[in-house]
């Protein structure tokens, strides 16, 4: 099989017989990869019999425990902070921790196809070397000593492939023959954030599944197939950091990294009852992470953590900023962790400051697609809590979110999807139907790029002015401190039905910081539309018709906590405080 | 005369006779504007006889004093800090201060054509109202109480035109018929930074000349003609903030704002023996400032101060950041003035910290065009001073600056100059020969925009890695704290000979912070090439041949102090310390 990357522009005309052979070739290549991956799971970690089909056993989040020892369960259901506390004091061996997560991740993959890369042996070697370090020095190697960390398969790890769900990328570096990649020559092939994490003592061990090209709210590709939602395998896991979401829901990882250009961290976080942070651009290092829109700078991908608690997100971000990533990534701002902002937000939230309480905006609808009943209820519960705690909540009436969506579409794919479709054509695989931009368009010209950039700035300005104007309404003397908004208009839907990502896209358009916290689960008994629902538009009508209370019963619902640009400390402090007040994030809920 | 802006794409075909009428029209319009401007100078401030021609009196920097009272001289040759100290304590009336600067600016304009807009009456009204405020409250209105401030004519002031040296922009808002401009609807027609400055108590009174479209190192346009260098009117004033530079050299302003995309603050600062700051993008608010490359986001224009001392730059930046411009400009980073960085840099410079001294890189040449002898001597004097004070200076051997220049050209004008040439065609005026991009090209496509953005990031990464790698060389345990570099390869040349802006462009490509300080003046007796100079390339040969020690004798030479991205505090602290150690910035030197 010829796996040399092809330049699609110089490719010879394909005769029908060649074409069919190539079709054969990409399918074979995908199959081979899928099988190679499975073979990396040690025999003793293989399921004795396949799990029953989703129709019989939709939820596998409890099922997975059957295959684990009590010690493994105890380790894997600990928070990242708890794990590091124990590995850093010799109470737990890093090797035991890493093995437990490798085992659980292997099981998870057999249940929901959530991994793209497995490198258990390298991880266990790293763990042993950390144990040896601790044995010799009686101190941890770094603040993340021995913490296993899962990575979305857009993030490079030296010696491990990155397919990003694209068949033609297998055995290449982002579609190029292996060799010195300009950005990798100095420091090897790992993305900067992986180098930083490893320097802090963290241990990467798996890379998780993504939609083809990492550009969809549903995680399906031709290599790994489909990643379903482990809490209900009849529903989607979300995307594009879908494998991360599913793996976290199964406690196959204590902490993962996703990337987000339109909701790709936040949607799978919400769909899997976990926590996530989409930082503003320039806060965490994206250096050396793959993207099919690399060089699109107006609304770029950002990298951020996903975890079982807000505290673990804070733990990760704090550690990453302490290594001064602006010294390695020219796009990272020299903006250290601002503990005073974080702590003061928490104190004000708890009423420990003489000043007034906090003020929030709540977005009950973006005016394009109304939230389905479980999401409306989730928002209501958060608002009720905030008001009960003495905070002000005002209704959010911002500039048009339809305009935000338009700007998102206009600014994200200025090459008309050329880079993505060129990547697909390396192997001749077709675009999957659920991927954004599955039909290639002509690139726009430089004048149009500039006009769109100006329109984007004008929208950001209008939104900022609106945000600031709320100072007249809050009664705190300040504009709202944060915004509570849906993550998605509904709980995770059935496959093929992630139709709208507007609630998350809008905050990429604005480059605002946003955390996601779990809030509730859909309940078929209470979460019903009032009679005579009047749809806003055909898209909203579809969202209304998609809602199936029976199918979605029990499906997770989260909310976004949105701060202005670069307000990561604020949205993390609030994620911690609000989720703690709601008592979320405890694995015993499973 | 029809002054309705035309959409050049929908314009009717022009017959020869129409064309000649239009040619007539733009010339007449430019003349009318020039004359209207002159008529705004009160008769008592008009020169009784024109100044002698440059051949007889090249230097007018002392000449201007002849027309001023001792009190006016005393006011206008005070620093911004001194002025505000006096206006804020009632020692000086704001009106007297404003009148003195209006008078001196009016004289300056008659000597070097440095103004595009005059609004003395409005300024004097504002001054009176501030005096009234002080009279009533016995305290200043704000930290810039009564400080006159000049503005480059790319910055909007409500009620005043912005032509930016483009005839077709006269009587329009950036080429559009007057009316609600999307970015201006909320807060009037002033650029945000003007609103901020006025809120702080500053008084705009003039807008200064720029090259046609503000895209050249030489200040020439069809409206105002040519702005020569006041220290030698046979030489250029620099550009594009050329009017600012010239006005400052004549002490017709205590503090001005320029904009910079390739050296437009720094080159005129150096050519006029004054100080300037080009901040990184996102530090000071560019919201609502005009640009013919608006929407080009990879290497955008930035706004920054120009002044008679580094202390005045600090004064201005500190005041501007105190109003939290990120609340009004969505592109400004929430990064307050970091006084600890500023003060600690100064203490280390002075040897007041137990830690090691500072480390500097010195760029003796960028490898594309070698500095002419006066610039090499200026660099040597700074290096000698730094070493004498105990600091380390290493030779700077960065990634190719030729590559930086290529990236600058590739990223700055992705529309091929369409926006600029459309602006020119509003009136049918031709492009001036010294403007960058005077021939329109086809816009590049979105794929190419993305490829260029990636190449830019890779260059920034390589440069950052190089910067960090100097930690091995400095002996301080840190990478270099700042870089000392030429501003321009020579002193201000004769008209038409600003051939190369590579020394400044490179730091726009990198988005680094850079301050400019005056260092010396060219001396025909000592600043000569050694015999047998071997040129690097044809451009360097031209620079060598351009050098005319006799013509340039006495022309100002400055250097850049360059810090990494967003290191404004560092480069300002060093500008203050180094210039103070060199005893620069005293008007008695004139």
From TrEMBL, chains A, B:
It holds the Pfam family Amidase. Keywords: Hydrolase. The keyword Hydrolase applies. This is amidase. It is an enzyme of class 3 (hydrolase). Residues 97-572 form the Amidase domain. Its EC number is 3.5.1.4. Belongs to the amidase family. Residues 1-21 are annotated as: Disordered. It comes from Aspergillus lucknowensis. Gene3D superfamilies: Amidase signature (AS) domain (3.90.1300.10). It catalyses: a monocarboxylic acid amide + H2O = a monocarboxylate + NH4(+). InterPro entries: Amidase_CS, Amidase_dom, AS_sf. It comes from the Eukaryota.
